[in-house]
């Protein structure tokens, strides 16, 4: 952990070196320059930042004149990307923001000094500046004290900050969960009161924020905070609908579907793929609409299929990447197959184990088990089966013994039965009863002969 003496040393990384060089270069040309924002927060918490931002008194055109390779990504807001030794660093001019009319970005900005720049930022812990040479931190808003107290607090009046950009409502939750911090009471009250303002934010930005929460640290806590703030009811009503949905206690002693889902998220591995994280969040999203109090017990028949459909709907609504939606929906659709794994024929089990992205299916099963009874026996059995096949040199489905062309060569008419025949050949191959094309052809001739007799 960091923060003890507050002077900070940069890690030995290409990103840190590029940012420090940019600061050095700006200063040599007579401009003020400091590192700012998330990278300073991370360094003070003893973590290695993924990227670095530089704030400077230099205007965008002065930055562009100083560096050979720049990309003017937001000139009107004073933002330029500087490319140095293969690293992209965002360099922004100290500024004060004008009025926010669309709850997203200011209608105008004026270039200003470091203290105005600190005051326009969202949270105190993100409004810290660092001199990379001396390691000295400039804190004009009490951000270091809030890091020590593990508190997320807006810079200035929370109603003003959330009113300017409603996405900050979600960002407050994400930072609190990620850092394991609480949200300062005044900030929390304003966040809850202003939750309905999140509808002013575009679906893409909401979707991006949710994926960041799910793939960051403490995703279960992020979803609990969204629920307590009533943001969940607005951005993910299908997840909010899981609250209070009873489950059979013999399988789910932990409680309702929402409680189970948050516990599953608590067990996500570090840095999960977005598809896995979304799949864990939504694996039981089909339970509320399929809830049934049957004579024997509570049932959720077909909740996997209902969940698959809802995952597609939610993903499209939040404009999530198409490949993330497709993979998450597949995880949701297949998550009930594990319970049948021990009864599967060898061929079916191999098809199951050798499908694309099976690691994510396995990881979801582990989260699901740990989120209820904590019994990993089934997860271990499936993993052991896969490992045993790998040990025997099998890591994927073998190449097919026959193709459609081969079936035509055998005198068969193309049609829907081709798929059934080729699948039957593959099954015999996976069960170890067929190993070469000649045997496969003999199998098909026999199959076709039987079919003709039946006809």
Segments where pLDDT lies below 50 for 5+ residues?
Answer: none
Task: Please outline the major beta sheet.
Answer: 7 strands, mixed
Strand order in space, largest sheet? 3-4-5-2-1-8-9
Q: Report the helical percentage.
A: 40-55%
**β content, as a range?**
5-15%
With helices defined by DSSP (H or I, 4 residues minimum), what is the helix count? 23
Radius of gyration: 28 Å
Mean pLDDT: 92
Counted beta strands: 13
Structural class: alpha+beta
> What global shape is seen?
elongated
Distance between the termini: 76 Å
Describe the structure using short key phrases.
455 residues; two-stranded antiparallel ribbon; 23 helices
Task: Describe the protein's architecture and organization.
With 455 residues, the chain is α+β, with helices and mostly antiparallel strands. The strands form four sheets. The chain has a seven-stranded mixed sheet with strand order 3-4-5-2-1-8-9. The chain has a two-stranded antiparallel sheet with strand order 6-7. α9 crosses α14. The radius of gyration is 28 Å and the shape is elongated. The mean pLDDT is 92.
Short description:
The protein is α+β, with helices and mostly antiparallel strands. Helices cover 50% and strands 10% of the residues.
